[in-house]
Specification:
Elements (H helix, E strand, L loop, with lengths): L2 E6 L5 H19 L15 H7 L2 E6 L13 H18 L4 E6 L5 H13 L4 E7 L2 H18 L2 H4 L10 H4 L7 H10 L13 E5 L7 H8 L26 H22 L8 E5 L22 E5 L8 H17 L1 H4 L6 H16 L4
Parallel strand pairs: 1-3, 1-4, 2-3, 4-5
Antiparallel strand pairs: 6-7
Helix pairs in contact: 1-2, 3-4, 10-11, 10-13
Length: 366
Amino acid sequence: MPLIIISGYPSSGKTHRANQIISYFNDCIAAASPPSPSSQDASPAPSQANARLARLKIAHISDDTLAIPRSAYDDAKSEKMARATFASAIKKALGRDVLVVADGMNYIKGFRYQMYCEAKAAGVGSCCVHVAVSPTKAEELYSLRLSSSASSSSPSTSHQPSSPSNSSPSTQQQPPPYSPPTFTNLLTRYEPPSSFSRWDSPLFTLPFDDPLPPNEALFAHLIGTSAAPAPVVRPNLSTVAPASAPADTLYVLEKVTNDVVGVVMRYIGDHQDEGGGGVVKVAREPASGPGLGSTKRGGQKGEDDWLELVLPSSGVVGTGQMQRLRRTFVGMWRSRAVAEARGGMDEGRVKEAFVGYLNGVWGGDG
């Protein structure tokens, strides 16, 4: 599932907007979830899109959920570690059935590009929600929060019970604000997202006066509808780990080629007086016992059960030459083993390819 990158000035209301988005998607998930087994009402089977939406989990990642204090942004070293912790948490949370809400300033465009690359490597989409306020408005909101934090920590008000009607979780659990120098530093370093940058696209700009985020537009782009499915995201080939060759690749290559070499050398030893040339017949099917490809087999075989290896007429083939050719063939096939063997190496194909390789080197027709 996709990644929502929330970006904005400090104290601009990013967490409030993130909670609004999460609340909307939670309602969508609840509506798509199947009824409880105790329900007696017959309901139609859920569609594939609803079943996918019902499996959706939401991961809200922020400095508060990761226990990163505001003081971490006071110096460059701790700020770098805080960003690394934030990026690591996002990377771990990305998945096909997880909607990740990156609730942070995300004020550096290089950091947003890193998150875009992580999402694409995971095969999920991403978008950027810009909580747009002016620097003056951000300073005003910061001043209000600073004064509110100072008044809540004063001894005269710390022991007064709060009224349930005037209190809310957002006001009761507000983390301490940034220090004034840190706030000014972050405000001046902020790099706003741009719709012309692919890592910020699609960009949803959310003005401060709008009561709700563009939830429907976010849902249509990230989840999709029956009429307009969400775009398919494919990771770049450079970021995809190459498929590994089967575990028995080298064993099968060594075994088959050594047995073919053994058949050839036995034929040459039995026909030393005839000089060069000759045709060696190698069984296609693996042997039932030691000596794969050996000519000593029980039962009758037709012409199609044998591979013909034509020896060169000029000169005598020696063990050293055969071993060099065998090592060259094994090296070539190890590089193409993934494409040639998805479920395990086929000994018959390897034997046929090795005999064909030798015939090509020696100019045979087999």
